[in-house]
Amino acid sequence: MKEDYASMFNVPELNKRLFFTIIMFVIFRVAAFVPTPGVNANVLAAVFAQAKGTALGLFNLFSGGAIKNFSIISLGIMPYISAAIILELFTAVNPELARLKKEGEAGRRKISEYTRYGTVLISFLQGVGIAIGIQSMHGPGGASVVIWHGLPFVLFTAITLTTGSVFLMFLGEQITERGIGNGISLIIFAGIVARLPGALGNTFRLVSSGEMSIVALLLIVTIAVLIIAFIVFVELAQRRIPVQYPRRMVGRRMYGGQSSYIPLKINVSGVIPPIFASSILLFPATISKLIDVPIIKTISAYIMPGSFAYSVIYIAMIFFFAYFYTAIVFNPKDVADNLKKNNGFVPGIRPGKYTANYLDWVLSRLTFGGAIYLAFVCVLPWILIRKFNVPFYFGGTALLIVVQVGLDTIMQIQAHLYMRNYDGFMKSHKR
Question: Which of 7, 28, 83, 323 could form a disulfide with 119 if both were Cys (CB 3.0 to 4.6 A apart)?
């Protein structure tokens, strides 16, 4: 395989996809610095300097710093993800959507169309909310963030931010079709990684000035490497359910009798649980920055990131969303029915509802282990940030996204290399 990676740049099709993906990344990063008109950038930067530990900081991370610049893509790709998740939830309770999901490519295109409409709606509503909220924000000395107020600013800002989100959705779809891997995930990946060089530069500046010891830096790097290795191990791990297909006679020939398996990941729900949990828990802190309500300020102070109360509630919500989302994306009954239709069975388990119950039993225990894994990876960085005063937000959720997308991209490249070897074999065989 090392020889394949060494010659990967000699594959024209792969080169085109890699080059196209890089071009899309460059366009994304340029758009992150195009500001939305009507906002005082200096005052906004001062406000974000105090936004650590709020949802603004979390969303700013996922958007690659676009919110801090209040650029045209400040909403990032999160409206698209929210629309996709909401549609996935509706699919579980709406028979019409469930039927579309099972119709193959035609159903997938229809669901994608609904997702785009949902993205526009969510983006516009979020844009209106942000425009209204930012008008009440003030920086040092009471300076207003917004240069001009009123309904025109709200509508113009909402339309601009909605257009930016739709543009990012378009970039993601183009990367998926003409680039490498899942374009939406790669855009989030690019936004997170883009902030890493500056954050590392600030860290080394603190070390050089004596504000952080070299021992603490080495300890942080060691822990980060161990956590990344642990994430890779868990993400690649599988619980394989054996499946047997009976032998059958067709004419004078015997067919079937093969053995296969159902691969179940330990972390079926992916990064959805920590993203949802973080957004909900950081919401009071974000609201307290926008409006002066004593009870909201009390709640936000009680559940500050890194505190004991925050950690306990965060872990509980990760467990809840892990089980909830796993139940949405994996239906043991559908899998059992498909096995039964194809005459497949799990050895020792009767087909039908008994197979569904068995799969549900295995999945429940895997989800429990996956929730423990998510909680550990997501809570530990918060503790390290508070303990060692790391001068940037690069928590477990961001780390999970970076590692998962990185692994997926590597697998996409491997698939193209395998296809190249397969094509070469077929050509030599024809000769």
Answer: 83
In the three-class reduction of DSSP (H, G, I as helix; E, B as strand; rest coil), residue 239 is classed as strand
Residue 345's SS3 state is: strand
DSSP lists the bridge partners of residue 35 as 71
Spell out the domain ranges in the chain.
1-195
Higher-confidence residue: 77 or 363?
363
CA torsion sign for 184, 185, 188, 194 is: negative
pLDDT of residue 65: 61
| C-alpha atoms less than 13 angstroms from C-alpha of 384 in its C-beta half-sphere | 23
> Which CATH fold topology does 1-195 show?
Preprotein translocase SecY subunit (1.10.3370)
Give CA–CA dist 38/148, Å, rounded: 6
Residue 380 clears pLDDT 80, i.e. is over it: no
Helix 183-194 and helix 196-209, axial crossing angle in degrees, nearest 10: 20
Section 12-35 average pLDDT: 86
The Cα–Cα gap between 303 and 301 comes to 6
d(CA 22, CA 426): 31
- From the list 73, 80, 91, 162, the residue with the least C-alpha distance to 115 is 80
| Cα 76–Cα 34–Cα 123 angle in degrees, nearest 5 | 30
Give the Cα separation of 74 and 207 in Å (integer): 32
Looking only at Cα atoms, what is the longest distance across the chain? 90
- Report phi then psi at 94, rounded to 5: -110, 115
Grouping H, G, I as helix, E, B as strand and the rest as coil, residue 51 is coil
Percent of the chain with pLDDT over 70: 76
Which tokens is 144 given?
A: 């207003």
pLDDT of residue 129: 80
| pLDDT for res 395 | 59
Q: pLDDT digit string (tens) for 40-71?
A: 777 777 766 665 545 555 556 655 566 667 78
Q: How far apart are the first and last CA of the chain?
A: 25
Confidence of residue 429 (pLDDT cuts 50, 70, 90): very low
pLDDT tens digits for range 245-265: 776 655 556 555 677 888 888
Helix axes 183-194, 151-178, angle to 10 degrees: 110
> How would you classify residue 203: left for phi > 0, otherwise alpha for psi between -120 and 50, otherwise beta?
alpha
| Mean pLDDT across 24-51 | 78
At 248 the three-state DSSP class reads: strand
Angstrom distance (rounded) from CA 280 to CA 318: 11
